[in-house]
Amino acid sequence: MANQSGEEAFDHDVVVVGGGPAGCAAGVFTARYGLETEIFDRGRSSIQQCAHLENYLGFPGGIDVATFGDLIHDQAESAGCAIVPDLVESVERADDDGFLVEPQTGEPVTARRVIAATRYGGEYLRGLDDEDAMFETHEYDGETEEYFDKQYAESDGTTPVDGLFIASPYAETSPQAIMAAGHGARVGVAVVEAVRREQGYPDSVADYYDWVRPESERTGEWSDRDRWREFFENRFPDDHELSPNRVAEIREREIDRRFDMYISEEEAERRATAGQRRLLDHIDDDLVVEAAREIEAEREESAATDD
C-alpha cells in the first residue's frame, strides 16, 4: 500500500492510538489532508466516565456521551479515517524508520507516523526512546511507581522520537473534552506540517490551515493566479535548495489549494443542508417524529390564526 508520498513503504501514513476527542480531532485533520489514517479505539475512552457532557460547544442542552462518541467517530470516518475497534498492545520501531503497531487481536500494521491519544498511561510506547525519557518515577506510600511523563512532548505534540506525536496525555490539557479535542487538532496540524516539510516545503510555506470561504470574498488582486504566484515566490527563502521545477510544483499546488477553499453560495447552502441532515442520523427517531408533529401543529395553529 502506498503512503502519502507515493512510496510503497507503510500500511498507513498515520496511526492514531485512541479514538476519543483528541484522537478523532487529530485524525480529521490528517485524513482531510490526504494522509491515510487509521484510528485504534478500544471503546473505553476516558470520556466514558462522564455521565453527561454539558460544556462542549455546539450542544446547548448538553449531549450524552454515547451520541457524542458516535458523532466524533462519524466525522473521523467521513474525513477518511478508518476506525479499528481494538486495543494497541505496543508500538515499536520498524526497520525502515516507521513504526510497527501491534494490536491486541488484529494483525500488526506499519505506519510512518504515530499519534498517541490515550489519556491514561503510555506503556505501549515503552522502548521507543532509548533513554526511557518518556517515563518518570514517583514515590507513594513507600512504593515507587512509574508514569508517562506528561511533559515529554512539545506543545504541538512533537517528541524526540522522529514520527511520534503525543496528543494525550499532555500536561497542559485538562480532563475537559473540548480542550482535548483542541489539542488533538493542533497535533494533527503539526503532523500535516511535518509531512509538508518532508516534501520540500520551506518553513515559511509549510504552515497549514483547513477551512472554506465564500467565493464572493475572492475578489480583486487575489482572484488573479499571477498575484498568488508572486505571493508564494516571495515566501520561498533565498537559500532554499529546491529546483525551479519543484518550486513551481509546490507553488501551483498551493495556489490550487487556496482556490479550492472558496465555495459558491449555492454550494454553501447545499453543505449546510447536508450537514443538518447528517445530524439527524444521530437523533432518536421518536424524537424526530415528535418534533415534526410539534412543528406541524404550530404551522396549523399559525395558519388558523392568519385566517
From TrEMBL:
Keywords: Flavoprotein, Oxidoreductase. Residues 12-118 form the FAD/NAD(P)-binding domain. The keyword Oxidoreductase applies. GO terms for molecular function: oxidoreductase activity. It holds the Pfam family Pyr_redox_2. This is Pyridine nucleotide-disulphide oxidoreductase. It comes from Halolamina pelagica.
